[in-house]
Amino acid sequence: MSTSTNPPFGTPLLQYFPFPSNYLNINHGSFGAYPTTVRDALREYQRQTDAEPDNFIRYKLPELIDSSRSAAAELINADVDNVVLIPNASTGVNTVLRNLSYKPGDKIVYLGTTYGACEKAVIHLVDTYAPEGAVEGIKVEVEYPVSSDEILRRFEEAISQKGVRIALFDTISSLPALRLPFEKMVALCKKYNVLSLIDGAHSVGAIELDMRSLDPDFFVSNLHKWLYTPRSCAVFHVPARNHHLIKTSFPTSHGYQPEERPGRPKVHNPLPASSKSAFVQLFDFVGTIDYAPFLCVPEAIKFRKEICGGEQKLLQYITNLAKQGGDHVASILGTEVLGDEDQRKSPMVMVRLPLTFTSEEIHQGKQHLLREKIEREISEKYGTWIPLIYHGGHMFVRLSGQVYLTLEDFEKAGQILSKVCKAQQMSKL
């Protein structure tokens, strides 16, 4: 298929996605979406698995997984021996945090905008080691608007403390969805001899990445959010220097190699002999799950190349659309977009809603109840879903740019939000 026949971005590309004609998918960031060509590949892999379970899982699956790992590694410019596939970014973050050994006084640094489940993973570690006092979580407060330079200053102040073992940070935070200076944060971690763990949930397929240049200690990114693979699928990158730190997958797989200790009986490994690294073998087969989404990475990349004209054109379109669309929605609402120019270099945008709350309402948590009410109302009445967040004293929405969307779709979203906000304002009179 030649890229010379590429259809233009926007409405013409809707034909490749399974959305009903009356649905506006302007929240691509939460769960992603994938084209029907990828869906067909998914169904075929599932059919083959169901037709001959043993033959497919035992003999065909390993090679297909390797092909997907290779495709993902090439996309992020990484050595394939350092790349494995896992279900999602949260799995990767937990895998790193729970594999590390900790001693009294060790600290884990993370940002205030860290994804909630990942923050709770840190807190769970703190609680687990509480009797020994071995782990302390240091939360770097981030409330926008704030400059990237100020974020870096606060981050450096935190990781320069004695005993910091690892720092967890995003490429693009989820809510609010703003790009962090993650490249400079990795460099700061190296400066202070702190392990860097990048939660790149919104990364592969959303921004350009180069693992050889970036060189974090650990990196994980969902592929089902922005790369167009089926749910769920993520890439986990660990450079060779850190393979020894990842001793087990979660749950522990047959690839785990127990330490040799006097009197310990030999543990049987039912998997065939492999020339792959111990790190890769840990994640080759982590129990019986549906591996079909993992196998669709090449098909997803093929769609992006042949239908969308390649990564550069695709990324440019979705980023520009988020910027222009966000500005347009802000003009409809009479508000503004959150973040500076660098922080907005992503396919997601945060727009403030024209809603205000009294101090008493905030004390009562009314802003959170209203967020839930508006999200459900939009879903039930308007054929779309838009995430809201109360941040820095204001209510914001997150909108996603995508190849099947146009500026007109952001106009629709803006009008929906305008109606909902006006109705809320009238109800308070």
UniProtKB/TrEMBL annotation:
Keywords of the record: Aminotransferase, Pyridoxal phosphate, Transferase
GO molecular function, one term: transaminase activity
Domain Aminotransferase class V: start-end pairs: 35-231
Keyword Transferase: yes
Pfam families: Aminotran_5
Superkingdom of source: Eukaryota
The protein's name in its UniProt record: Putative aminotransferase
